[in-house]
């Protein structure tokens, strides 16, 4: 695992939390004795690896769709894939934006 493999444009997730009470609070987690807000670099790498793998798995699907619907705009193929992936809940909306952009690049190669 090389944490530097994660492209800069891959989204960083934010951690939202709801904590009741009058005093101000922040949402953090304790990891190895340290408090961490948001995701760690290792968690970001894991999410990127999943999305990169998914983009590569979807490449033949997109290519097949383009072959079966010759003449249709590529955006329509990407839209159908986006809807399908979104319904499955495999990634966040920000990650899905990145995934569709990555799939677009792979289709151009």
Features:
3 helices, two-stranded antiparallel sheet, mainly alpha, 109 residues
Outline the structure in words.
It is a single chain. The longest helix has 28 residues, at 41-68. The protein has one domain (3-108). It has a two-stranded antiparallel ribbon. The two termini are 25 Å apart. The mean pLDDT is 88. It is built from 3 helices and 2 strands. It is mainly α and 109 residues long. 54% of the residues lie in helices and 6% in strands.
Summarize the structure.
The chain has 109 residues and is mainly α. The chain is 54% helix and 6% strand. It has one domain.
Strand/helix succession? EEHHH
Mean pLDDT across all amino acids: 88
Helix- and strand-based class? mainly alpha
Q: Approximately how much beta-strand content do the residues carry?
A: 5-15%
Based on CA inertia axes, which overall geometry fits?
A: elongated
Separation of termini?
25 Å
Number of E strands? 2
Low-confidence stretches: none
Number of helices: 3
Query: How are the strands ordered across the major sheet?
Result: 1-2
Share of helix among residues? 40-55%
- Largest sheet at a glance? 2 strands, antiparallel
Number of domains: 1
Over the alpha carbons, how many angstroms does the gyration radius reach? Answer: 18 Å
């Amino acid at each position: 695992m090389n944490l530097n493999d994660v492209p800069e444009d891959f989204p960083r997730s934010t951690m939202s939390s709801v904590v009741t009470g009058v005093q101000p609070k922040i949402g953090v987690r304790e990891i190895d004795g340290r408090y961490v807000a948001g995701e760690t670099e290792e968690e970001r790498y894991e999410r990127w690896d999943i999305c990169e793998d998914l983009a590569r798995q979807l490449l033949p699907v997109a290519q097949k769709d383009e072959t079966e619907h010759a003449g249709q705009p590529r955006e329509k193929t990407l839209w159908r894939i986006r809807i399908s992936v979104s319904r499955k809940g495999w990634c966040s909306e920000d990650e899905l934006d990145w995934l569709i952009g990555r799939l677009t690049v792979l289709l151009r190669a």
